[in-house]
Amino acid sequence: MADVLEISHDALRAVDLNHDGAALLTGLLANHQQPVAYLTGRPVHRASGAYRGEGKTDAKDAFLIADQARGRRNLGLLRPGDEIAVDLRTLDRLRAQLVEVFPALKHTWTGRSRVRSHC
Predict the structure, then answer these.
(1) For the chain, how big is the Rg over CA atoms in Å?
(2) What pTM did the predictor assign?
(3) How many whole angstroms separate alpha carbon 117 and alpha carbon 22?
(4) CA 9 to CA 85: how far, in whole Å?
């Protein structure tokens, strides 16, 4: 962490996940009073088509998230324990459970299918 902070204390860090490995990162950054912006998966997915390169890779995703974070001014900051962060994690868990029960919903939410489900 010291090496990262040595590069810049003013850099904005951004993630498109708010759980698992990203939760560890946001907690670590919070312990060092560093802000972390959150981009939801939908805008990241939509923007991915505008970037060069075939397929989905971690490097492409990282570049895309950083580029989107630089250009957007409406990003919320994640802080461990914030109500918004807790709500986002809860919604994400609910979405994951719904997709587990109704796999077709994943395609509806990501825009990959024109079929709309009526629940």
Answers:
(1) 16
(2) 0.56
(3) 31
(4) 23
Handedness of CA 95, 67, 62, 80 (dihedral sign): negative
| Spatial separation of the C-alpha atoms in residues 48 and 16, rounded to whole Å | 13
- Using a CB cutoff of 8 Å and minimum separation of 24, what contacts does 110-116 make? 110/42, 110/45, 111/45, 111/46
Look up residue 55 and give its amino acid. G
Q: State the Cα–Cα distance between residues 12 and 70, nearest whole angstrom.
A: 8
Integer Cα distance of 51 and 56 in angstroms: 11
Which tokens sit at 95?
Answer: 């979405």
Q: What is the pLDDT of residues 79-97, one digit of tens each?
A: 666 767 667 777 878 888 8
Q: In Å, how far are 41, 85, 92, 93 from 18, measured between CA atoms?
A: 10, 7, 9, 11
Q: Going edge to edge, which strands form the sheet with 13-15?
A: 13-15, 36-38, 76-78
Q: How far apart (Å, rounded) are the C-alpha atoms in residues 31 and 26?
A: 9
DSSP 8-state class, residue 64:
H
